[in-house]
Specification:
- The structure is a single chain.
- This protein is mainly alpha-helical.
- The chain folds into two domains: about 60 residues, Ferritin, core subunit, four-helix bundle (Ferritin, Up-down Bundle); about 60 residues, Ferritin, core subunit, four-helix bundle (Ferritin, Up-down Bundle).
- About 70% of the residues lie in helices and about 5% in strands.
- It has four helices and two strands; from the N terminus they run E-E-H-H-H-H.
- Strand 1 and strand 2 form a beta hairpin.
Length: about 170
């Protein structure tokens, strides 16, 4: 069941992405959903996103160790990886949307996607991860997953008034 903006009950946009979009002056229509190229775009996006975060963490470590030149290099590398991820997201937005196949839309749709994803991470994913870590005897990892769950739920709650306004 779709709401008036074409989103399903989970809040994601289910409408097909617009066809005939212009990219670099050329009209494109990408019917790549389900193809190996689509899977490669998803894998590359995940890799570039991880690289960006990894480089930022490396930069932080370099700062702690008093190596500002290395920190600057890692921050620059993080910016490049972020730029790559954004370029990949542009293709994914045309094809199918995020890693779950949920289509992107306008800012109101993005607010709903962000809120719903954070709520699911905080109430399900990280709770399950914490349980597993505890069951396997890793209480400090479980505590970190609990912290992430709480943070995600707070973020979702912070977005809720803006999401409610966008949905009205």
């Amino acid at each position: 069941m779709l709401d008036p903006k074409g989103r399903n009950q989970a809040g994601f946009c289910n409408l097909a992405s617009p066809m005939g979009q212009v990219r670099y002056g050329v009209v494109t229509r990408l019917d790549l959903a389900g193809s190996s190229t689509h899977e490669h775009l998803l894998e590359a996006f995940a890799s570039e996103s991880c690289n960006s975060m990894r480089h930022l963490w490396f930069a932080q470590q370099a700062d702690v160790e008093g190596k500002p030149e290395a920190a600057a290099m890692f921050r620059s590398a993080a910016g490049v990886a972020t730029s790559h991820a954004h370029g990949l997201l542009e293709f994914l937005a045309e094809i199918s949307g995020d890693e779950h196949g949920e289509r992107f839309g306008d800012t109101d749709d993005h607010l709903v996607i962000a809120s719903t994803a954070s709520e699911q991470a905080g109430s399900q994913r990280y709770v399950e991860f914490a349980t597993t870590a505890r069951d396997e005897g890793f209480p400090s990892v479980a505590d970190w997953f609990d912290t992430l769950a709480e943070s995600e739920l707070r973020f979702s709650e912070t977005l809720r008034p803006t999401v409610d306004q966008a949905e009205s």
